[in-house]
Structure formats: structure tokens, C-alpha cells
Amino acid sequence: MAMATRTLGFVLPTSLSSQPSFDRRGGGFRVSVIRCSTSPLTFPTSGVVEKPWTSYNARLVLEDGSIWPAKSFGAPGTRIAELVFNTSLTGYQEILTDPSYAGQFVLMTNPQIGNTGVNPDDEESGQCFLTGLVIRNLSISTSNWRCTKTLADYLTERNIMGVYDLDTRAITRRLREDGSLIGVLTTEQSKTDDELLQMSRSWDIVGIDLISDVSCKSPYEWVDKTNPEWDFNTNSRDGKSYKVIAYDFGIKQNILRRLSSYGCQITVVPSTWPASEALKMNPDGILFSNGPGDPSAVPYAVETVKELLGKVPVYGICMGHQLLGQALGGKTFKMKFGHHGGNHPVRNNRTGQVEISAQNHNYAVDPASLPGGVEVTHVNLNDGSCAGLSFPAMNVMSLQYHPEASPGPHDSDNAFREFIELMKRSKQSS
Prior knowledge:
Blueprint: E1 4-6, E2 11-13, H1 14-17, E3 18-23, E4 28-33, E5 58-62, E6 67-72, E7 78-86, H2 92-96, E8 104-108, E9 112-113, E10 132-134, E11 137-138, H3 151-157, E12 161-164, H4 168-178, E13 181-186, H5 193-201, H6 211-214, E14 220-222, E15 242-248, H7 253-261, E16 264-270, H8 275-280, E17 285-288, H9 299-308, E18 314-317, H10 319-327, E19 331-348, E20 354-366, E21 375-380, E22 386-391, E23 396-399, H11 414-429
Parallel strand pairs: 7-8, 8-10, 9-11, 10-12, 15-16, 15-17, 17-18, 18-23
Antiparallel strand pairs: 1-2, 3-4, 5-6, 5-13, 6-12, 7-13, 14-16, 19-20, 19-21, 21-22, 22-23
Helix pairs in contact: 9-10
């Protein structure tokens, strides 16, 4: 029976430890013996050996009872929010800093996130407003000339939870079938699954005023334009200046940059700014911005919009569109899972052209509830929902989606030029 020599973790037969090899110098064969230590491999008797991989140290528990083990890469703790999915392939930093995501976990359907890191130029506000980020794969390295830090470091510094290594495809299908779900993210092992499930079922995002927490607290002037390196669509600008009051319901900075690039002098005011004070500033037009949550939960904003209708040209984007719909006498409703992404096709009913748009909303205007004279100018081709309104009698225009393209395509940037034309015509007729 062949003897065996012990090696590190393996058993090496004697027939392999003593192998004949041809000796070119002597013209014959010689035997080479490989000697291995017979001492067993030893490990430290005290202390912890660090694993070269991250363990499953987090959980996502949804109100439907499903539990998704995950790995944490952001801030620790426990958070509760509504879970929505976003189909954008790029632009996760703009999404992280979009105030419209307040009260929500964002699940990215693109499986690889973090490749480009983060940088100070791509932020849409001064902080992150979403509650947590859910992704499939976290990039182990960054590759972008503008990168200043990793996504994990960025989230940790801003106290935002991030988890990865979940089956985001399966979760997305669940959200599409059952609708948006309330969930709990946690890294606390002391909390049981039942406790987390009860937390998810005891909270609701409907009817909560989320705008007050994301709006500015006092008026300020906006002066920054789009960086010339990134500017586009500079045609059809008449070079004249228009004074615009922008109501901040959670406004994205690129909306302000695009308006400024079109020649507007902008004053941003809080969501509670009285209509009478806005009119005293003698604006050429008023913008009602995007923002988070349920438009029915902010009746004070609807009343402000009503008071301004017919007094000055107005332009609503996203939440501003929904508030205009209510102010005009229409109704809004919560969608099954909303629109979140940079690839939504929209038809312009006036021109017949199709725009690929960036969208982020969970509520929509019911076109059947709108009074006569209000025109549905744009329709989402995925589900036929109302994506734009016009009421020429009161110089009103609005879009449910984001024309500022941050992130997203540039197809809808002409909407800013249309707002300029609306203000121009109003000034000429007055």
C-alpha cells in the first residue's frame, strides 16, 4: 500500500512526491524527491480572521411578507419608506439628490451601479433626500475622470442606507404586479423579521406632506447657468431677459440652470410663499417645480396656484403639473407603481412627435376630471396617462415629466423655450 505525505490541506501520494525525470547531462533518469512539511496548517488561537468578502448583514422586509437578505454598503440602522424602481441606466447621483424621492427607497433595475463613483458637479440639490438605495451589484472599482469618491463613501457620509446583492429583477416584477410596497431596511440583527414586518404595515406615505421638509426656507436668487461644456440646444433664444418666480416644492437645480440658460432671472421662493407676495415681485412668469409625495396632502400649495392662475403665465413640472391639474378643477390619483426612469416614451399631441423622457412620479392627473378648455398636450405611451396640459385662456402649460434631462435624454428641452414664448406673448399683449 502506497505511503502518503501530508501537505497543506491536501494528501499527496508517494507516487507523486517522488517523480522520475530525464537527466540530459547523464543521458538517463534521476529521481527528484519533493519534501513537504507534515505539520498541520495552524490558525490564530485568538482574535477574528477577517473574511475577504462581505457577509449578508442587512435585510429588506416588504409589507407583503417577503424578506430579502442583503449586504450593506451605506449607513447602518433601520429605515422605513416606500419602495419604487427606477429604470435609468445612468445618473444615480442625480437620482440620489432629487428631492422628489423623499420618503422612498429607490431600486435600480440596471444591475451594475457605482462604476463612475460620484463627483460634486452632478448633484441636483444640497443633500440626498431618498431614504435608501437598493441595487444588484456594487461596482468594486470606479472609472471616471470626474470621480472624487466612491458611492459607498458618499452614502455613508450622508447617512443614507445602501444595500446590494439582492435579486432586484424579482423584486421589480413583484412591484409591477402588486404595486409600490412599503418596506423596512435594517442592519440591526436584534430586530426580528416579525418586528420589521409590523413596522412596514404600520406606515403609509399617502396623505403625508413631504414638500415642507424639502423646500427652501427663504427666497434666494439663482444665477448659475448650464456649464458651457454641457450646454445644448442654444437655438431660438431671443436674448431677452424674463423675470421668473420659481416655487420650490423640491426643485432640481438643473431646472434652474436650464431656465437661466434661456435668459431668465430667477427668484426661488418657499412652497408656502403667499401668492400676493409673488405678484408684488412683478414676475413675467411663475414656475411650479417638481416635488415629492401626494399633491392632495398639500392643499395650501393648491390654493396658491389657484390664486395665481390668470394673473401671470405659469409652467408646472411634475408635482407642479399635478398641483395645476387640481387648481384647474381636476383630480389626481396614485398610480400602481409610478413612472421612474429615463426611457419613457411620450407623444406630443400637437406635433405627433415622440419624446423619450425622464420621469419620476407616483401620482397622475385624471384627464376625464378636467374642465372644458383644458387640453391634454402630452400622453405617456406606456400606459396612456396624462403627461402634459395646456390652458391657453389662462396662459398655463405643464409637463408631468422632467425636461431638464438630469438624468435623461434631451428630447424635451424645448419645453423651456415654449415657456419663454408664452411669457413673450403675454408681455406683448399686455
